Amino acid sequence: MKLTDFVVPGAVIPSLQVSNKEAAIRGMVDSLVQTGNIKSGDADGIVAAILKREELGSTGIGRGVAVPHTKHASVDRLIATVAIAPNGVDFASLDGEDVYILFLLVSPPDRPGDHLRALENISRHLRNDHFCNFLRQCKDAAGIIELLEEADSNQLS
Amino acid sequence: MDPSTVSREVVVGLEEGLHLTPMRAVTLLAEQFTCEISIHKGDRAVDAKSMLDLMTLMAEHGTPLVLTARGPDAEAAIQALGDLFDCNFRPSDRA
What we know:
The complex is a heterodimer of chains A (157) and B (95).
Chain A: H1 3-6, H2 21-34, H3 40-55, E1 60-62, E2 65-66, E3 69-71, E4 79-89, E5 99-107, H4 112-126, H5 129-137, H6 141-152
Parallel strand pairs in A: 2-5, 3-5
Antiparallel strand pairs in A: 1-2, 4-5
Helix pairs in contact in A: 2-3
Chain B: E1 5-11, H1 20-30, E2 36-41, E3 44-47, H2 51-55, E4 64-70, H3 74-86
Antiparallel strand pairs in B: 1-4, 2-3, 2-4
Helix pairs in contact in B: 1-3
């Protein structure tokens, strides 16, 4: 599985300007609504489900990264979007630091393996400091997609 | 084997595999011990105290894993982590 297999190109947000976790999640879900990957009528339910998941424990995994996610029956395949928050978002992360890179995942309820494969894929690249640094420096959506493609083809070692 | 090294095998009993919530439970528990703790899947090993490491493990339901700890409190660490897998992360795993 590659990043570009599940990240929706038109939904990435190069400069997410929000003041809190809920607004960040709302903005990213709305972005997937705009690309037609989530129906507008499902957006509220998906945001609520992601926030409920956050209550179990923040998906802010440290190193300025969060991976908010949920399962939802309205999607028939795993979809995701990426956002860069230049000013940081308080995500109640494990290390107490603000979050600057967000991967939001929505997966079908019956595909837990795909969810694990996506987490593996994202984390493998996020362990690479070059990937994190370049991602935070991206100025536009095209730059983010290009970086994801480079990561997929292992050009960032 | 080094006398301060302790290992035991566990199996992922979670229907959805070792996803983010139980991974967090693993790191929170592992961080309570001073010993080095690794989790092995086949010939791969990851640091049990690192979320990013654990996320790369991709351990689905039924996957056998080996927990290994090395250090002064290794035995207690493996006991505690083994118990976490044995009780299938209940009651904290509700995701």
